[in-house]
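Bumping my old thread because nobody answered last time. Still need a sequence for this structure:
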């Protein structure tokens, strides 16, 4: 004789209402946000319903809710990046902020694949996902490839750069970050400040060069193109050859007394190789990284670096996407772009020569 399953059937709204001594409409308002503004629920009642729902292991049927026109409160994120550590850190803050706002995230990942992005967007739409955040790297020409993918789409939020003037975007001010780096190095007495970039085909690297040149100009210092070095590498990861080439070009040939690196990994490798060559950091060459990864506090000397303020970014991004969802095309164009100011974290790798001795 077949055994009956011991698994309990899922709790229904009517079951929770009976246990809580309230109406089914009240339970629906608390758990599923149904009923609209016409249903008022006191805080004590809301807490009682939530506790009973947890005890009875209630799980909402999202598909059934969407068929009834109930919002999913789901957001999508599509990652298209080679900068995994930074984007994953940003994603963690986005998930936390979305949860605080009553939303959940669904995540997809592609790499330079417009067709794959279109498939994800179609799938998200079919699942009732209300808005999508798109975290992608800025390579030359990629934006043009993506424009047809987003044509006619709504509630899309971009990272760093929108695909057109009408799109919405949250970005960290990369140019300002480098201006802070240059200003700090000048203030600590550095005269020959070099920049080591991984690839000028990356739009963010171009913005760094622009910030570097702008700050030197504002400080009345000449811009020496020989102090702007690029590996022209297809990868952000620093190779031994690239590190040595950067040191040869900037320190050996151009007598740079400071280097602003592409990221923290580049900066750490530069510090290690400079020390192997008998150069002192920061006494002979100061080094600044970018991203404020954990490795910045492990290397000796500890690394001065740029913090991209992921928490502020996540709050701004989730807030803007929810505004897009709620207002759609009525949100003014001048409110569709938010710029986050980064923060320079000063550590031992840029101490003045007097401090380092």
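Sorry it took so long. Here it is:
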């Amino acid at each position: 004789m077949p055994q009956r399953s011991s698994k309990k059937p899922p709790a229904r709204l009517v079951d929770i209402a009976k246990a809580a001594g309230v109406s089914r409409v009240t339970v629906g308002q608390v758990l599923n946000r149904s009923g609209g503004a016409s249903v008022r629920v006191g805080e004590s009642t809301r807490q009682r319903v939530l506790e009973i729902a947890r005890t009875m292991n209630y799980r909402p049927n999202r598909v059934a809710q969407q068929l009834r026109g109930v919002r999913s409160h789901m957001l999508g994120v599509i990652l298209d990046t080679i900068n995994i550590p930074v984007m994953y850190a940003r994603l963690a803050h986005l998930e936390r902020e979305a949860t605080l706002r009553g939303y959940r995230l669904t995540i997809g990942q592609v790499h330079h694949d417009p067709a794959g992005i279109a498939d994800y967007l179609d799938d998200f739409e079919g699942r009732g996902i209300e808005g999508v955040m798109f975290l992608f790297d800025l390579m030359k020409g990629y934006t043009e490839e993506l424009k047809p993918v987003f044509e006619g789409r709504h509630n899309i939020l971009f990272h760093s750069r929108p695909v057109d003037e009408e799109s919405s975007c949250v970005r960290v001010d990369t140019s300002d970050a480098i201006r802070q780096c240059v200003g700090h190095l000048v203030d600590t007495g550095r005269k020959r400040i070099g920049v080591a970039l991984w690839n000028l085909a990356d739009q963010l690297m171009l913005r760094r060069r622009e910030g570097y040149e702008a700050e030197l100009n504002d400080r009345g210092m000449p811009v020496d193109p020989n102090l702007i070095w690029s590996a022209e590498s297809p990868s952000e990861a620093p190779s031994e050859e690239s590190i040595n080439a950067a040191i040869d070009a900037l320190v050996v040939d151009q007598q740079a007394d400071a280097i602003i690196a592409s990221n923290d990994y580049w900066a750490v490798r530069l510090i290690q190789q400079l020390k192997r060559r008998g150069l002192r950091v920061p006494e002979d060459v100061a080094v600044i990284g970018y991203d404020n990864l954990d490795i910045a506090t492990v290397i000796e000397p500890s690394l001065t670096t740029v913090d991209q303020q992921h928490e502020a970014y996540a709050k701004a991004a989730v807030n803007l996407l929810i505004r897009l969802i709620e207002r759609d095309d009525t949100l003014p164009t001048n409110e569709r772009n938010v710029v986050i100011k980064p923060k320079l974290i000063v550590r031992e790798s840029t101490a003045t020569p007097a401090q380092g001795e």
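The first helix runs from residue 13 to 20. Let me know if any region looks off to you.
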